[in-house]
Design brief:
oxidoreductase; 11 helices; NAD(P)-bd_dom_sf; alanine dehydrogenase activity; globular; alpha/beta; ODC_Mu_crystall
């Protein structure tokens, strides 16, 4: 039995959005139906290295397929000084029936791809049908997959990218200027679009109530730790608020600060995205104005994305097969 080693290029090549987005939607549905197991994220804090490790295991049964795996991921803010990424991830994808490790793959690219796909699922259920403009605050690596994925499910034509780093903005514009009407702009200009994705690590809100359009859908993707907070409380309170997981979002998602201060309560949360996917709660209705999706990123998303990547990589003979178990 061979284990497939897949680097970031292999993951990117085989994470086909046309299949990845429905796979992530299947994962949300499985979790809501009780057909998934996802223990809480566990942390190893390493203050001596100004970093941490996080383990994210999950199993899900989507009906036509099931999958299991674990992502080992870190956050080390000092890494760029050493020419290393702040976040590095490794995904171990296993056969649920036998526990054989089918693949070991780059989890950093996998995370970017599944995060974009999760935003696309939420946007599909919560944005206006004819959404054609998209704003992005934060021009880092996550911004690219946000646009790629959301453009799969909405007719995006105009894109406004906002970031304090002019070079990052220029790279983003250069990447997409042949496909979209893309330009640099302020946070206010980005927030006035039909769809807004925020992918920053800030702890003081940068998107005000006055800035957002009356029917804007916001994907709040940046908050992944206690204290992070991109969107003003007034926006959250005025919106149809949808989360990915209650435990994670109240601990480390966009709502963690106002929730733990008592400014925002469970009564202000409309639904989990899985409830909307399975039809238990409504997505966007004609009466809705603002909508917000608070995404922390779930292990079930990583497993679903790894399933798509592995199936295609195996078909296409991508990656490097090796005898990890020494059985051959």
């Amino acid at each position: 039995m061979q284990t497939l080693l897949l680097n970031s290029d292999d993951v990117a090549e085989n994470a086909r959005l046309s299949e990845l987005i429905p796979a992530i939607e299947d994962a949300f549905a499985a979790y809501e139906r009780g057909d998934a197991q996802m223990p809480p994220k566990s942390y190893i804090d390493l203050p001596q290295y100004n970093g941490d490790f996080r383990s994210m295991p999950a199993y899900l049964d989507a009906g036509d397929w099931d999958a299991a795996g674990i992502k080992w991921v870190n956050v080390h803010p000092d890494n760029p000084k050493k020419d290393l990424p702040t976040v590095l991830g490794t995904m171990v994808y296993s056969d649920p029936e036998t526990a054989v490790p089918l693949a070991i793959m780059d989890g950093t690219e996998l995370t970017m791809q599944r995060t974009g796909a999760a935003a696309a699922v939420a946007t599909d259920h919560l944005a206006v049908e004819d959404a054609s403009s998209m704003g992005i605050v934060g021009a880092g690596v996550q911004a690219y997959t946000q646009l790629e994925a959301i453009a799969e499910i909405r007719p995006i034509r105009e894109v406004v990218i906002s970031d304090l780093d002019d070079e990052r903005v220029e790279r983003f514009v250069s990447q997409f200027e042949d496909r979209f009407d893309v330009s640099a702009g302020s946070i206010e200009e980005a927030a006035s679009c039909d769809v807004l994705s925020t992918v920053t690590p800030v702890e003081d809100p940068i998107v005000s109530r006055e800035a957002v359009g009356e029917h804007t859908h916001i994907n709040a993707m940046g908050a992944d730790a206690e204290g992070k907070h991109e969107i003003a409380d007034e926006v959250l309170l005025d919106s149809k608020l949808v989360i990915d997981d209650h435990a994670q979002t109240t601990h480390s998602g966009e709502i963690n600060v106002p929730y733990n201060e008592g400014t925002l309560t469970d009564d202000d949360i409309h639904a989990a995205i899985g409830e909307i996917v399975v039809g238990e709660r409504e997505g966007r209705t004609p009466e809705d104005g603002l909508t917000v999706f608070d995404s922390t990123g779930l292990a079930i998303q990583d497993v679903a994305a790894a399933h798509v990547v592995y199936e295609h990589a195996d078909e296409n003979d991508n990656g490097y097969p090796f005898d990890l178990l020494g059985l051959n």
